[in-house]
Amino acid sequence: MSKTGRKSRPWRLRWVVAGKVHGDTFTTSALAESRRSELWQAMNRRGEAFEIESGLPESEVGAAAEAIEAADAKPPLRWFEFCRKYMVGRWRTAAAKTREGMVDGLAAVTLAMVECGDEAPDDESLRLAFRWGIVPANAGEDPPTELKAAYEWVTMADRPLGDLADAEVFEDVLYRVSYKLDGTPAAGDTYKRRRRALNAALEHAVATGELPENPLQRTRRKRVGSNDVVDARVLVNAAQARQLLTAVSYVGSWDRCRGRRLVAFYAVLYYAGLRPAEAVGLRLSDCHLPETGVGHADAAGDAACLGQAVDRFRGAPRPPGPEGAAGNQRPPGAHPACGGRHPAGPPGGVRDRQRGTRLRQRARGSCRLFHLLAGMGGGAGVRAST
């Protein structure tokens, strides 16, 4: 031990290991003397070996290695912290409804990603606390008084993100996505929205290295039976349908054919089971009407239409789309009563009073279609068929 002559750390300690000189400097002589005593005890009392490269006892080399490993090893990322970081990145570019869908989907999964216990808050409080805490604007704020206990449970009793690889935990996750809080199955759209939100979050976890793979890609939704029963008292019966067709036939004047077009529109909805957009796009050539037996209609015009198109049947060309392509048509069955031939259509040459133009062939086809369908439910007396 000697002095270096420098103001900072003026005391120097030197020792030799296998012919290699090692040293260190200290601010006071007491510190240098203490370090010399530690090295002497490691060599003489404990009989430790010294590492030639560093000149330190093996106990200190092992402790230094453990400290480096502990510093490199980060704690596992937990579910709530992952969701909060994920939402911060998605919040700025997502639309309002997209944000709502993401929050709802992750809130449903949270019920499976928190520990259960006797002191755990109810599921509804946990969902509300998660939905409040995941919003980036609420970061660093104190939760509302009624959500304080639930928020503390969500943030302190949540599972590590890696627990999603556990089959039992992920089974509970799928249950929370598929069912509501009261135990009834969630609607199809609700399930799809939640699954999309969960899948996007898990794909982000895989991209950032938090998960080795997306466990959702290996699963499919289990089909469950529905307990819903249709109340026959709220369905439209044949008499009500005939009354509706009679009522709409009186809309507008006779020469403008507006009532007759509406009758044809509502008739194919009721008797052939078409969607409104399919009924608007239906042509007489799409209907296969045998002399006897059941016919069908090729509903290929399933596209969103404006109210004016529904009202006036202007005969716009069919928009391109997957359902309008050949081979993707939906053939609804026609009423069994569509056996006889339809009567001749209205005479041509009818002119629109407002525009002074000839009605298109689409309107005449709609009237012919009505004459056919009006007889399905005994529609005698309907004005458009007289």
TrEMBL record:
Superkingdom classification of source: Bacteria
Chain spans, region Disordered: 313-361
InterPro entries referenced in this protein's UniProt entry, alphabetically: DNA_brk_join_enz
Name of the protein this chain belongs to: Tyr recombinase domain-containing protein
The organism of origin for this protein: Streptomyces chiangmaiensis
Organism classification: Bacteria, Bacillati, Actinomycetota, Actinomycetes, Kitasatosporales
